[in-house]
Design goal:
Distance between the termini: 43 Å
Strand content: 15-25%
Structural class: alpha/beta
Radius of gyration: 18 Å
Helix content: 25-40%
Shape: globular
Largest sheet: 4 strands, parallel
Length: about 260
């Protein structure tokens, strides 16, 4: 069969992603990505440590980041993202900036982190009072609050799960329940933390129900990386990436695909 008329695959632009060794949601990241962009993922080395502040520091060490970015250089991405919320907020604002600088030195290309992307997303939405949902322990959640406080962002309420492993197994039902608890305060937006926590399908439902922007770790990471390329993330009724969604809520039953 002659397939020469197809002309080969379409050109792709690349986003490099450095993820923790236990990251399990590759497929979720891809759902925000347009067809002309490819993700190139690499993982940090395994360490026998449960999810907590120690692990956050280990997966964000500059030497580890440098090695990961140098491996990604082989496929020549245009931007590289460190996809880990706790790993990028554990050192505070200065620590997050130093991580970006370390990745840029290793790859000579623009670099960003999930926590840096979070701040950019909150600025985009004009949000200064934020409700938090995290799967973390109290100490890790408090570290996130301290990071936000450094930039003048107030946490109005929080809901957390205290997990130290298998975060990717948390069902949407539990994420939505935590969001409802956290949204009881007067917040401008709600942030669901941790790149290993599934969120893609629950965002439209929560935005309609809670009447506020709902953003998540994976969402802001892909939004920021794709914006760096001059293109847009894709996704149904998500205020961060869809200007039409910012004009007013849509009830879940009115959204295509919701039953």
């Amino acid at each position: 069969m002659d397939v020469s008329f197809l002309g080969g695959p379409h050109p792709q632009r690349g986003v490099g992603v450095v993820a923790p060794f236990d990251f399990a949601l590759d497929r979720e990241l891809w759902r925000w990505v347009p067809d002309d962009v490819s993700l190139h993922l690499t993982r940090t080395p395994f360490v026998p440590v449960e999810v907590g502040l120690d692990l956050a520091r280990l997966v964000s060490e500059h030497e580890t980041l440098g090695d990961a970015v140098r491996a990604l250089n082989a496929v020549a991405p245009e931007v590289v993202a460190h996809a880990c919320t706790s790993g990028s907020f554990v050192g505070g604002v200065a620590g997050e900036r130093a991580m970006c600088e370390a990745m840029t030195r290793a790859g000579a290309l623009p670099s960003l982190t999930t926590s840096g992307a979070l701040l950019a997303a909150l600025e985009e939405l004009g949000a200064r009072r934020v409700a938090l949902v995290t799967p973390y322990t109290v100490s890790v959640t408090e570290s996130l609050e301290e990071y936000l406080a450094e930039t003048g962002i107030t946490v109005t309420e929080r809901a957390l799960m205290g997990l130290t492993r298998h975060i990717w197994k948390v069902p949407y039902r539990d994420v939505a329940d935590m969001a409802r608890r956290a949204a009881r305060g007067a917040a401008d937006a709600l942030f669901i933390s941790c790149t290993n926590l599934p969120t893609y399908d629950v965002i439209p439902q929560l935005e309609a129900e809670l009447r506020m922007p709902v953003i998540s770790a994976n969402q802001v990471t892909m939004w920021a990386a794709l914006r760096q390329l001059g293109t847009r993330a894709v996704g149904p009724y998500q205020r961060l990436i869809d200007q039409a969604a910012r004009r007013g809520p849509v009830l879940p039953e009115e959204q295509e695909g919701w039953a």
